[in-house]
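Why predict the complex rather than its parts? Because the way molecules touch one another can change local conformation, and only a joint prediction can capture that. The input here totals 263 residues.
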Amino acid sequence: AYQDLAFVTLATTDSYCMGATVVARSLRRHGTTRHIVAMITPNVSEQSRLALNDVFDEVIVVDVMDSEDYHHLCLLGRPELGITFTKIHCWTLTQYSKCVFLDADTLVLCNVDELFDRDELSAAPDPGWPDCFNSGVFVFRPSLHTHTSLLHHASRHGSVHDNTRLHGLRINWEILCVGFVSVLLVLQPQLDMLELQVCSCRFGHGAKIIHFLGADKPWSSQGNSSYSHNMEQFVSLWWKEYLIHTVSSAPAVQPKQEQKKPQ
Ligand code: UDP
Ligand code: MN
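Output of the joint prediction:
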């Protein structure tokens, strides 16, 4: 009955594939009845692809898309994010009637199938820019028409994250309850996000999905030092989920962070 509903994530590199694996495993751990789909780009290694085949119902190869909005992304200190525009391809998955997109840097803490009761486009506000939505978790309806409009829009404006812009596309942004997605930010001195970090930890208690937003990811070796104590528990949980079935086959990226911890 739920065959036309799917969770979708994206990985364009082998290290983001580590994240994608955790997204799928954490969804399954909490008993989702929906399909779980990974979009990958042609450069992803054979080894990572095979590993994803084990945990995803479907692994789909899509073209790399780049916003080419290099200047703005540099201002945010994240020049690598142009490639995240590839996620717009999720609207082409028309074999599904409704989907929930999850960034590869999310961790699901409980069953979140209730998200499919929401309609396009439901998302949580971005902690840094509250009148924009955070595109780490959103509910959408695949449609080639919407896909084309979004590509057109993104190529002209470089972003589709706020309601006024979505309005032009006849899409309404509905806010998911505050706290549904807890955004874990690492301290980014250039953006002065200390206060946001404290606030998101308070909401962290009722969170159903953790989004490891920011340049440091649980799988990046440098990530460890900048996580606060509260976030550390979720980083450990991420590693637990990643390593649980991965120990036999060599991981795509060595889990340096885990090695640092006393056994
Ligand atoms: N992504 C990817 N390869 C990259 C960068 C991003 O596959 O090199 C995908 C991945 O699904 C990731 C999403 O795009 O979760 C958004 O990027 P990221 O999570 O790094 O951005 P943030 O949430 O920190 O703003
Ligand atoms: Mn993310």
